[in-house]
Design brief:
The termini are far apart. With 536 residues, the chain is an alpha/beta fold. The strands form 8 sheets. It has a 7-stranded mixed β-sheet, sandwiched between helices. A 6-stranded mixed β-sheet has the order 10-9-8-11-12-26, with helices on both faces. A 3-stranded mixed β-sheet has the order 1-5-4. It has 2 domains: 9-281, Aldehyde Dehydrogenase, Chain A, domain 1 (3-Layer(aba) Sandwich), CATH 3.40.605.10; 286-478, Aldehyde Dehydrogenase, Chain A, domain 2 (3-Layer(aba) Sandwich). It is 37% helix and 23% strand.
Amino acid sequence: MLKNIFPLVAEIPTEWQLNDFIEQRAYLVNGELRIWDGPMNEVVSPVSTNTGNSIEKNIIGTTPLLTQKESLEALDAAVAAYSNGTGEWPTMSIAKRIAHVEQFLVEMKKQRSTVVKLLMWEIGKNLPDSEKEFDRTCIYIEDTIKGLKNLDRRNSKFENEEGVIAQVRRVPLGVALCMGPYNYPLNETFTTLIPALIMGNTVVFKPAKYGVLFIKPLLSVFQNCFPKGVINIIYGKGRETVGALMETGKIDVFAFIGTNKGASDIKKLHPKPNRLRSVLGLDAKNPAIVLPDADLETAVSECVAGSLSYNGQRCTALKIIFVQEQVVDSFIKKFTEGVAKLKCGMPWEKDVKITPLPEPGKTDYLKELVNNAKQFGASVINENGGEVNDTFFYPAVLYPVNAQMRLYTEEQFGPVVPIVSYKNIEEVIDYVVQSNFGQQLSIFGTNPKLIGHLIDELANQVGRININAQCQRGPDTYPFNGRKDSAEGTLSVDDALRAFSIRMLISTKDTVANKNIVQTIVREHQSNYLRLDYIF
């Protein structure tokens, strides 16, 4: 089936061809686009091409392999710009910081077509999803601006309790290190980067391991829209860059979306752990629970999309499906039919759902999981399941899956779908309770009493319970978090603003002299923090 999945060069539509090799030597430090003349990292696209005789890899660009020296220079710039909280950016009025972010958004939107094309070529994301990622990121920035205005208005008042007059303000935490994931290298990264910036922190930003070249058209936008040292962008291997940053103890906020092991290893390098604030989005093994009375049309539709959208490469993907034994045969029949309807192809092709995988070695890893499951009694139950061609892996549906298999507990992060048959709902409850992860789960059923029981049993195990719907992040105004090894902190528009700031109280005793001092400061605008004006 996958023999001719990759196109001839002549078959690639002109508008989606990458005509130029992208040599990315610039990086941003202290407001300067510095040029790296050292070793470079090759960017290999998951989209290979067919020469007629063989499949050929496409090296579409290179990025700098910076060292500890350049990373520490970026950190020094961020530390200097923050200046113990007295720098231009952290003390700037909220209205002015918002103006900088608004300017950034205007200029960023001009790069939409370039960024979308690079997302397709770098990480194999289909065209609609690449466009959605860009547009959703822009909306997130707009909502963040609105959220900060609302927060500022709520804080623009004085309280008087027990003879103490006070005003509560939110102030930045310091220097933030922001790192995003390859599956949503723009959106997920900016959901930490933008709140960190707009709240007055200075930032060192290291792009994801894959999905890097799209930053190139945004470098000058960052440079032109923010004061020097406020945002610094570095590239390179984590052990050469991130480790050196954390070991200094000068990082105040660690924003990271990736694996819990990666987060733990990085956090351990910080010499002052009690000083470090972490905002983490980590692994997940989100289960779907299909009850015996479920509407199978809805359950199958949501589970197919939930487990295989963007090839299952989403932390919110459904990564294991529990189906009650009475309906498992019917579910499997409909599910495999749904998987068979998913179009495979290149990211720019109309209606394509399954695309090449960007991680080197990913297809080998997925084959390992499939073979392991087979050893313990599972079968690939869909036609062509597990077929491989270079970076392309056709979705494999495995059944029956049991606790002996790696797929039962291991996050596959790819197009492999394990299905488990259960007899008693307590088996599923026990699975969720014993799991190391606790991001979300989905319940499919029509019995309010049983669904209510499951909600009560599992509400303290995960961050979100979805009823007759797949797991998801949005809307972005809702909290996005997790328990156990799945997250630290909460991300949403309002929660992110709080995550990258801390409440600070300005107070005085209720005396005539003190009130006169406060009134004079407010009336004559002698403080950016102690004030009554707010932004509409």
